[in-house]
Write a structure and sequence with these properties.
The complex is a heterodimer of chains A (395) and B (176). Chain A has 395 residues and is mainly beta. Chain A has two helices and 30 strands. The N terminus of chain A is likely disordered. In chain B, the strands form three sheets. A four-stranded mixed sheet of chain B has the order 1-9-5-4. Helices cover 23% and strands 22% of the residues of chain B. Chain B has 176 residues and is an alpha+beta fold. The chains are: A mainly beta (395), B alpha+beta (176).
């Protein structure tokens, strides 16, 4: 014989009634004794920023599925927060002022969105507010392509902005920032991009492996030009155009992993002896690759390069490791592995230029890794920064 | 001339020289003549065996599907495949306009064992298609070697330079 389970008292119906009474009593009591005050009235405001920090990452979202709508996403790597956005149009190039307070976006729009009259323009944003401040119209011939440090660049004194053109004839536009007007256009004999140096010099990369350097006068017009000796071989081992500033010069790396230092402090460029990122055994196997593949920290003379194992034609696949070098001693200091299955392949690196630097890395899954530049330790992973994070714009 | 073909070198020298010496319209016309001429050349003397092997490698099994990034003709393509955007591997989608200028490459066709010279034209005049992103770079070179570069917007010289998608058009056989 099976017995019914014991109940404290009474049947199921009585139990429910008692429970209801308890709840009602509790509700009435709470309302009477401890009603929270209503939420305060809100006033709609616009968030403000502090002064620009060297630890802000300006991530270019190439928006590959809708490239007329690219943008810079501003991320604070100290607080790990998204701060805001700078819209940037179609295949933009960027330059930032040395004080970090201004972003210049060189871009293209059409009067009907995807068609109509083409307008090339440089738009200026105040980085302390992310407000658009003003613009200067450009000739409709600016280079449209993935960004490098040399698609647009300020002169050292920030009197001029240089903008690379490609129609496919190569030239650059000189913008007088004081007059807020175009000063002129300089033909570059097939050499591409704008690498500024000194007060008024602009160098461009030529397929012959030379640098064309144009010196401007104080009105922004050509005063002289000179072609250097060849310093790389575009047939045997081309250099990536995505170099990085190195004081008064530039560092490039080649497809096979040699470092090419160019000193632009004098009237004529000087070329340092190349040095390898790879050992003889690694050469042709371990290679640099990505969209932005050199980051340099001048205070520590550290060089960071995403590396991968691959063959010819793999120069854009991104790195499975970041290699850190002492650029003064030409020594590899560390190899840091980042599981591509977990983070994606590393396609861009940038290191902040301050006394307590951070190393940033973007992956092909649009993750932003914030790294300790001494240990390679991951300090933060921002899993998804935009649709197609491509490049880091920082002064 | 270990990695580059003589044809590549000639095309580049010619196009670079033309770009430097002529107006844009004149340059495009002349470049078009070069490319049309190229398609008429039989059995060009080109050694691209290393590149051809690289193109064949990882894509085996999908090399005959024009909607796959591993399709043999796409060995240096960078962008959205027009095959997935209303066109084919050699035709632009309706309502778009082919780019008159282009970058070139040599791809190996595993089906017949031949290497082919191909031009990668962009289709222009509409915003990005968004389907079948593909980025392969056998033989691709940086922007200072423009005719072998797939980074720049090759719609740059179109009336409407909006990039939509990319095709790969056979220009001729590259004889080893």
């Amino acid at each position: 014989m099976q017995h019914a389970p014991m109940r404290p008292s009474g049947g199921r119906a009585m139990h429910a009634r008692r429970l209801g009474a308890i709840c009602m009593g509790l509700g009435l009591g709470t309302a009477a004794l401890a009603a929270p005050p209503p939420l305060a009235t809100e006033h709609l405001t616009v968030a403000t920023l502090g002064p620009p920090s060297p630890h802000w990452a300006y991530v270019l979202d190439l928006a590959t599925n809708n490239e007329t709508d690219e943008r810079l996403l501003v991320f604070d790597a100290d607080r790990n927060e998204h701060l805001g956005q700078i819209d940037a149009g179609y295949y933009p190039s960027f330059a930032q002022s040395a004080d970090g307070k201004t972003t210049a976006a060189v871009t293209t729009y059409w009067s009907r969105g995807w068609h109509g009259t083409r307008t090339d323009v440089v738009e200026f944003t105040d980085n302390t507010t992310l407000n658009y401040t003003h613009e200067i119209l450009l000739p409709p011939k600016r280079m449209q392509g993935p960004p490098s440090a040399f698609g647009a660049a300020f002169s050292a004194d920030q009197r001029f902005l240089y903008v690379a053109n490609l129609t496919p004839a190569a030239s650059f536009t000189v913008v007088d920032l004081g007059k807020k007007a175009v000063a002129g256009e300089i033909e570059t004999d097939g050499c591409v991009l704008v690498i500024p140096s000194g007060p008024r010099r602009v160098s461009s990369l030529c397929e012959s492996g030379r640098l064309l350097t144009v010196t401007l006068d104080e009105t922004g017009h050509e005063a002289s030009r000179a072609l250097s000796k060849p310093f790389f071989d575009a047939d045997k081992d081309p250099i990536f155009v995505q170099g990085t500033r190195n004081g008064s010069g530039v560092l490039f790396v080649s497809f096979l992993g040699d470092v090419y230092g160019v000193d632009l402090s004098g009237a004529e460029p000087k070329f340092a002896a190349t040095w390898p990122l790879v050992t003889p055994a690694e050469r042709g196997t371990w290679r640099p690759s990505g969209n932005q593949l050199v980051a340099y920290q001048p205070r520590r003379e550290r060089l960071y390069v995403p590396m991968h194992v691959g063959g010819e034609g793999s120069h854009k696949v991104g790195g499975s490791e970041i290699w850190a070098f002492d650029a003064a001693k030409h020594q590899r200091l560390a190899r840091w592995k980042f599981d591509p299955k977990r983070y994606g392949a590393i396609v861009a690196v940038q290191v902040t230029q301050d006394e307590k630097p951070l190393l940033f890395a973007l992956t092909d899954t649009s993750a932003l890794l914030v790294l300790d530049p001494d240990s390679g330790k991951i300090k933060h992973v921002e899993g998804k920064v935009g649709q197609s994070a491509w490049y880091l714009v920082n002064p | 001339m270990s990695e580059r073909s003589r044809l590549d070198a000639w095309l580049e020298r010619s196009s670079r020289s033309l770009a430097q010496r002529t107006s844009r319209r004149g340059f495009l016309g002349a470049l078009g003549q070069i490319l049309v001429g190229t398609s008429l050349l039989p059995l060009l003397p080109i050694d691209r065996s290393s590149r051809a092997e690289a193109a064949e490698g990882p894509g085996k099994g999908h090399t005959d599907d024009p909607k796959s990034c591993e399709y043999w003709k796409y060995c240096a393509i960078d962008g959205f495949l027009c095959s997935c955007c209303g066109g084919t591997s050699s035709s632009c989608p309706p309502g778009t306009t082919p780019s008159p200028i282009t970058w070139i490459g040599t791809c190996h066709n595993p089906a017949d064992g031949r290497d082919y010279i191909v031009s990668y034209n962009d289709c222009c005049g509409k915003t990005s298609c968004g389907n079948c992103w593909c980025n392969r770079n056998e033989g691709e070179k940086p922007m200072y070697r423009l005719s072998l570069n797939n980074d720049v917007n090759w719609c740059m010289a179109n009336d409407n330079p909006n990039y939509h998608c990319s095709v790969s058009v056979i220009l001729g056989v590259a004889e080893k």
